[in-house]
Amino acid sequence: MNAPQHTAGSAAPVALVTGASRGLGRALARGLAADGWQLVITARNAAELSAAEAELAATTTVVALAGSVVDDDHRARLAEAAAGLGGAHLLVNNAGTLSGSDTTDVPLPRLADVPLPDLLETFEVNALAPIALTQLVLPQLRRHAGAVLNISSDAAVEAYPGWGGYGASKAALDQASAVLAREEEAVRVWAVDPGTMRTRMYQDACPGEDISDEPLPETVVPALLALVGGSRASGRYRASHLPAVAQGER
User: In Å, how far from its chain's centre is CA 217?
Assistant: First the structure.
């Protein structure tokens, strides 16, 4: 899937981005919009999603649908919205949760203490929902020889105390990505570890800590855009190891 090139009368490619109201999701949606992509965006917080929609609508066509990716009906609406714009060329599974309840004033719980309903929700949001949404959007992606970009984490491969539930769910997403890549010859599938970023989610994971020296999510976007616009094969990558879009190429 090459970087979009448009001629008069041609439709711009369509990207469906989950967790697009803030952090990496919003930064990537902004970068895709600047590159000429139409967007379907979603997030749970309706007010934050509306703000993202207003920003992005100044650059491209955007459909914003608030809701949870765990909800079957909401996922169906997302797939329908992408089809209405011409069909998805790219699915970005970025929405995630730290520990289900996402309590922001206490450290992440040890596996011995994590409530099982929270652990279940963590897997539902971080692993099951991306698989389910991919199933719905795959016919569109196959038609366009498109791609799936699953946002992973180093917690999927490294053992950090307190990150067991989150890391295990991301490891499951990594494995699902690898299998899907073997099964879908017409669709590229990437799992990308973006690295530690200065986001609300990471701050929630480290209550009381100063994370101001961490890079902003915008710094990761050029590497993701280069991946989406290039010819790199399916696989698991670290964003820091990917070449970024060079100045003037976009």
Answer: 12
pTM of the complete model = 0.90
% helix / strand / coil in the chain, to the nearest 5? Answer: 45, 15, 45
> What is the rounded average pLDDT for all residues in the chain?
89
Per-residue pLDDT tens digits for 163-179: 899 999 999 999 999 99
Long-range contacts of 52-56 (CB under 8 A, 24+ apart): 52/20, 52/21, 52/22, 52/26, 55/30, 56/29, 56/30
Q: Please say if 166 is a catalytic residue.
A: yes
210 near 194, Cβ under 8 Å?
no
Q: Under CATH, to which class is 14-241 assigned?
A: alpha beta
Q: Phi, psi (5° rounding) for residue 75?
A: -60, -40
Rounded Cα distance between 232 and 243, Å, is 11
Beta strand ranges found along the chain (DSSP E) = 14-18, 38-43, 62-66, 90-93, 147-151, 188-193, 235-238
Q: Write the pLDDT tens digit of every residue in 43-57.
A: 999 999 999 999 999
| Residue ranges per structural domain of the chain | 14-241
